[in-house]
Write a structure and sequence with these properties.
mainly alpha, three-stranded antiparallel sheet, 5 helices, 3 strands, 61% helix, 11% strand
């Protein structure tokens, strides 16, 4: 039992370090965008396809819900708390590694954009696919979007319903009686 608890603590520590690292990377890329792109023309990485283009986004994806700073900060906090709870409950088993990693990515993306909203009242976006005129986005958006898509695929095609029994109240009561 002690070995399982030590393994769980180690996993939570790794989750926290990964979370901090990913938020740091997101914030560093945004600082780079402010220093090198703000007030300047777009910088083409692949002509006609991909550009670095500075944008202050006061809304959500695709410009939705403009100027709703408090709403977005609250949503990010709720998401991070829910993910922290699930990470705490996940058994330290090998099959949950992808699930665990994807949840940390989602929380990191939510936190990265929350830091922007707290500091500036907007999110710094700077990656632009000009080929398809896709909305400008940032590294935190990549964390959230890619990991959410992968998480859905894992839930649909890899995990089974009973793999999530660790989240049920009945399972929590059984676990408490055993320990």
């Amino acid at each position: 039992m002690r070995n399982k608890k030590t393994g769980k603590r180690w996993l939570l520590f790794i989750d926290l370090m990964l979370f901090i690292f990913l938020v740091f990377i997101d914030q560093m890329t945004k600082s780079f965008a402010v220093l090198h792109l703000c007030g300047k023309d777009s910088f083409p990485l692949i002509a006609g396809v991909l550009e670095l283009h500075y944008l202050e986004n006061f809304g959500a994806a695709f410009g939705l819900l403009q100027n709703q700073k408090i709403f977005f900060i609250l949503i990010a906090i709720i998401i991070c708390i829910m993910i922290a709870y699930v990470l705490y409950r996940i058994p330290p088993e090998r099959k949950y590694i992808p699930f665990n990693f994807l949840l940390v990515l989602i929380a990191s993306g939510a936190a990265g954009n929350m830091v922007d909203r707290t500091k500036h009242a907007y999110v710094i976006d700077f990656i632009y696919f000009s080929l398809i005129d896709f909305p400008v986005f940032n590294v935190a958006d990549i964390y959230v979007t890619v990991s959410t898509i992968l998480l859905v695929l894992f839930i649909l095609f890899y995990y089974k319903e009973q793999d999530f029994s660790f989240l049920s109240i009945k399972q929590q009561k059984k676990t408490r009686k055993i320990s």
